[in-house]
Amino acid sequence: MPDLTAVDALKEVAFWLERSRASTYRAEAFRNAAAAIDDLSPEQVATRTRNGQLKRVKGIGDRTFGVIRQVVEGDVPEYLAELRDEGAEPLASGGAALRAELRGDLHSHSEWSDGGSPIAEMARVARWRGREYQVLTDHSPRLKIANGLSAERLAQQLDVVAEVDATYDDFRLLSGIEVDILDDGGLDQTDEMLERLDVVVASVHSKLRMERRAMTRRMMTAVADPHTNVLGHCTGRLVQGGRGKRPESEFNAKAVFAACAEFDVAVEINARPERQDPPDPLIAMALDAGCLFSIDTDAHAPGQLDFLDLGAERADAAGVPADRIVTTWPVERLLEWSHAKR
Q: What's the whole-model pTM score?
């Protein structure tokens, strides 16, 4: 049998489609097809492809069957080869040197909240794309629309994260959360659970148009919380994409970034194309304030893990030194920093 299995090929097609920001439906078709045959051996896949049985399996369509058939015949599927060629170049034209220094990513989601893939798949792809570590940060309970995790579900997830992490000796899957910043600045999870995590990203997701002084107090309170490691997508803006555009939240950025510097909280450079958050002037302000930074993908699908290219380009253009970016640090230094306030 070829080294490339049919499941591998289908998942890789989905990866390249997600990376290029193709429609979710297209990528899901290939991931669903991979799931439909995942329990079959390569020999079983080959037999059922040749006798036509596979065409009758739910989740297998003409396009996905064509990919499987070419793998069974010992070929790299033409569609996969085309996508590999299209994805050969980085997503950004700048920041290549800084991108090469990035070791990890502190913000990603799985199917446990509003991501689209299992935890193990997010870890597998992160390692394949060169990460030394990846932090899983599914949402907290208040964000019901994103299936946020209660304390009980988060405790169950920690067991899964530990199991996946134990399968690697050259990669770390770290535990975390993207915890909602409540209206009063509190964090939307129990202290007991927050203390068990490797990394806590705190983000505002509600009442984004809160009055300036109240929003400033809200954010500064969250930054001062001893569990907070990263201030996520601080303005909440959207500049493009299917959800439309959304203006920046109003707050005293100078005061918030001074608090980040004081409490050793990294300012996230969120690499999602529709966010590009913070805006360039606020990156410069945080840099002047002496803040640390974290370049994160906020990936909700495996293919979005390559968005690091976009974050590195923005950080490089802003002149952010690599050593002030915590995601350039080796995992031991990162964990020493993230656990220091616990």
A: 0.96
Residues 68-93 pLDDT 10s: 999 999 999 999 999 999 999 999 99
Q: Give the burial string for 195-219 (b: 16+ CB within 10 Å, else e).
A: eebbbbbbbbbeeeebeeeebbbbb
Handedness of CA 19, 20, 25, 27 (dihedral sign): negative
The C-alpha atoms of residue 300 and residue 107 are separated, in whole angstroms, by 9
Q: Each residue of 99-125: pLDDT tens digit?
A: 999 999 999 999 999 999 999 999 999
Which residues are CB-neighbours of 118 under 8 A, at least 6 positions away? 110, 111
Report how far residue 79's alpha carbon sits from residue 77's, in angstroms, rounded to the nearest whole number: 5
Contact 227, 200 (CB under 8 A): yes
Q: Which of 173, 247, 245 is nearest to 215 (CA)?
A: 247
Q: Quote the tokens at residue 224.
A: 């001062």
Q: Which residues of 80-99 are buried (b: 16+ CB within 10 A; e: fewer)?
A: beebeeebeebbbebbeebb
Average pLDDT score, the chain: 97
Longest CA–CA span in the chain (Å) reads: 68
Contact in structure between 64 and 27 (CB atoms under 8 Å): no
